[in-house]
């Protein structure tokens, strides 16, 4: 929240906190959710094995993919829905260990 995001018209540094209404819990939550979403997408796109990445991209509509159900993904890949579910759960557990949720 103390990150300098620019300068005001007088050349003084402006911190992120100064731009938010002090009662604006929604704005803070929006920023937090945006940061977490970027971390999750970056992890999925850059850290997962190819199959896990593809399943998560389809499951959550990442990178322009249409969001699909576990059954739709299973049918497309020729695997069981329960296997898709296990892969999704495995990735979610990886995310919990690697993403900073503070």
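Sequence proposed for the structure above (102 residues):
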């Amino acid at each position: 929240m103390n990150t300098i995001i620019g300068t005001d018209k007088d050349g003084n540094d402006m911190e992120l906190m100064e731009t938010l209404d002090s009662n604006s819990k929604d704005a803070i939550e929006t920023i937090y959710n945006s940061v977490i979403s970027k971390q999750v997408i970056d992890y999925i796109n850059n850290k997962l094995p190819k199959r896990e990445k593809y399943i998560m991209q389809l499951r959550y509509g990442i990178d322009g993919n249409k969001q699909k159900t576990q059954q739709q993904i299973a049918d497309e890949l020729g695997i069981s829905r329960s296997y898709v579910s296990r892969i999704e759960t495995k990735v979610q557990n990886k995310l919990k260990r690697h993403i900073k949720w503070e």
